[in-house]
Amino acid sequence: MAEETIFSKIIKREIPADIVYEDDKCLAFKDVNPQAPVHILVIPKNTIVKLADAQEADAALLGHLLLTARKIAVSEGYADGFRIVINNGEKAGQTVFHLHVHLLAGRGFQWPPG
Hints:
Blueprint: H1 6-11, E1 19-22, E2 26-30, E3 38-44, H2 59-75, E4 82-85, E5 101-105
Antiparallel strand pairs: 1-2, 2-3, 3-5, 4-5
């Protein structure tokens, strides 16, 4: 079983968050340390620690997370320009070990990202 994280506490409503979307599979909320004017985290309600831990059985959930991020970007008015980021592991910058999709928008982005 995965260790409890700040995200699992947000899902259980033990910690407040500025929630922008929720369904039976995922929750999306504004990042408390935004890196862009729009910075929303989309997380699965069932914990996957990191993308490398995902299994074939998680394929539909992973697709749902991406489609949810797209839906939020469109609803926020950024259908023509947004970035999706998934950090996998500490070396890639993952700080909360509960898989999450970063939706970034509202400014220009450079390539490579860093």
